[in-house]
Fold these 3 entries.
Entry 1:
Amino acid sequence: MGSWVATFGIVAALFLVSANAQLSATFYDNSCPNALSIIKSEIKKVVGNESRMGASFLRLRFHDCFVEGCDGSVLLDGSSGEKTAGPNLHSARGFNTIDAIKRNLEVACTGVVSCADILAVAAHDSIVQLGGPTWTVPLGRRDSKTSNQNGANNNIPSPTSSLRNLTARFRAQGLSSKDLVALSGAHTIGQVRCTLIRSRIYNDTDIDPAYAVE
């Protein structure tokens, strides 16, 4: 449960990055009353088939919010966009699912639900489906029409970032050291490439040798 509480903390904090007085949990109640159920249905199917997709949606949400706010800009195509930035290229997943949800929503209520909100709800529903807590998701975000590759390269922390660098990047987003630890803990629902951490495990003289073997 501790890891889920940590994950919840960071997701809630990321919501606040772009929160403003116009956001409301009931934003689509009249304009697209089935929006949340449409999103939930697709996420349930995808995460049910592959549980680590839940981590992928959470990661997309995190990477979106760290570049000029939670505006869906990470979803935009283009060779100079965030999709092709170093932190996302060949590693970000879940785009096809978000696209499929958007198509279904366009059939139900054309031009109403933003991709930024789809991503926010997808991250929430993934966590809930994997056994985590639920929380109120504020809605009403507007989609960005531009995507900032340089912003992604400069703002999203690298797996090799120092603690000082990580702390500074989180602080720039209005997030605390506690949020930093929580997001790191969210890796418990996904996977990490061994090449990114191998040298820090087996060449670290401070780590318990028995733990390193495990």
Entry 2:
Amino acid sequence: MAENQDGQEKTEEPTSKRKEESRRDGEVARSKELSTAVILLSAGMALLVFGSWMANQALDIFAYNFELTREDVITHDAMFKHFGASVWYALGTLLPFLIVLFFAGAISQVMVGGWNLTAKALKPKFSKLDPIAGIKKIFSKNSLMEFVKSVAKVLLVGVTAFIIIYGLSAEFATLGAMALEPAIAKGSYLVIWSFLAISLSLIIVVLLDVPWQLHQHREKLKMTRQEVKDEHKNTEGKPEVKSRIRRMQMEMAQRRMMSDVPGADVVITNPTHYAVALKYDEEGNSAPLVLAKGKEQVAAKIREIADYYEIPVVQMPPLARAVYFSTEIGSEIPQQLYMAVAQVLAWVYQMKQYQAGKAKKPGKLPAIKVPKELDPEAD
């Protein structure tokens, strides 16, 4: 199990902050074996695709170089011009192959750990020059794993090469009896496919190395309990973090509150500035309960939800303000408002009975007075 410099065991999973710091420092999981295998396989595929064209280009370059006359050889300008043209043709011939290798190398680097380019990773680390740390690395689990991989690669490449050479020995033997150009073409074809097969055998090492590198990186990022506590303390102590946490808590509470509005019996409004959603359960509560309340935009949202779920909305400014200022969400209204709210609920019940065709239409809801001490905005 990993330990820090104080000898404490790193048993805790890394926090998101620890992971971000690690990426900024250029510490990401990488697999050299994966990069090697991808580059070698890409090289083999590129040779299969561009091999014939590259061979013809090479023959043209050789032929071009044999066209030198005696005057060209003894003339500096002609020689330099000829040499420059040969180099230019050679680069043009190799360009497709080099482009494939470039992209293969770039893609293989981000297949494990993702894209991570940081200047901090380019800075020299003098801690790597510590001889004691170097000796410890020699006897570490990572060194043992590297040794196992090296042995596995030697065995895989050796066994694969032996099987291929043994299997194609008859094919290679026939090359001597063929004309030069067909022999070169067939020989190149056999060599390229042999190269691809040997490269493909390295996939076994890759399957061993990638999980190991991910595991090692995860173990390296692990933290001690004290480190987690210290980070939590430092993070929670920042004003911007506290503000963000409070904002998130308020948003969560508001979402929870809004989800309760559909269960309300009535919504009393100001009509635009305040809104409170009330529910009265004769069996469960001794008094009406405030399910949600809000002002301005929150009030508008409560009214919108009430309209959508066909919950009665009653405009009663003094009562809406009194409930808003006197009662918290999830609490019962104060005793001073029992009579006022009871009148509203009774009127709502009569209106529902009328809409269901079971009673006459109730009259207009009369103005309801509330105690001034419960309505700070009362005149």
Entry 3:
Amino acid sequence: EVCKKLLGKYPGVDARLFIGGKKVGINPKINNLMPGYEGAKYGLVWICDSGIRVKPDTLTDLTNQMTEKVGLVHGLPYVADRQGFAATLEQVYFGTSHPRSYISANVTGIKCVTGMSCLMRKDVLDQAGGLVAFAQYIAEDYFMAKAIADRGWRFSMATQVAMQNSGSYSIAQFQSRMIRWTKLRINMLPGTVLEPVSECFLASLIIGWAAHYVDMMVFFMCHCLAWFISDYIQLTGVQGGAPSFSKLDFAVAWFIRESMAVQIFLSALWDPTISWRTGRYRLRCGGRPEALDLGKAEL
């Protein structure tokens, strides 16, 4: 209904509504995208998840970053203001830990992209085999970005965030999502096994141990406090101002998220299977999944 209203609001825009998908591989998102991709007439394609809240000028912002040498423009994932502690926990993660690594990677030239909202050059994707070539992966966004980078194109970040606005959320869903992402990173990037060292509490323990000849606990607490303050400053930057929740809520959510980090990592190592969308998969080396139990619907 939303799409039909938009089509009616802008009758002069060359647009079509595609319903349903086309099975071309194991990835249900790619299967859903195929009819629209095959019907695309222009040089740029925008892949945007249904749970992303956009503004009237979001696409304009993306295209403004698509300069001559850029092949992909992506948005920093963040979360819209919602009710409940689970929403606060998600917002704290996507405003602190996630952008810290995401922005740092992109600033230093490491290709780090999530497919929540991406504008790409269609001809470059076609050179890589089109969307069909990525239907064999679960982490299609990583491999699409890699294919574009391998052809010499640069990446750029939009000035607007990719604002996640899912109507269904809980602490258990957040934890399951983080475990799934960690499994994918471990499988595709073996260096991820060192990831826990980048988390606050473990890094602070290492710092404290290194300075044990002074006072291990003092160094640990000071390091955690500095990290905590830096994270709050970063959150306000991503949010564009003070968050909708209190500083006490932030402190509780931050502590719980940091405490969950190692447990999430160990859970990802313990069970290599992934439950995602309509089925269960076992990851093979290189990111290719093997279907274990497909659901009733594959699209």
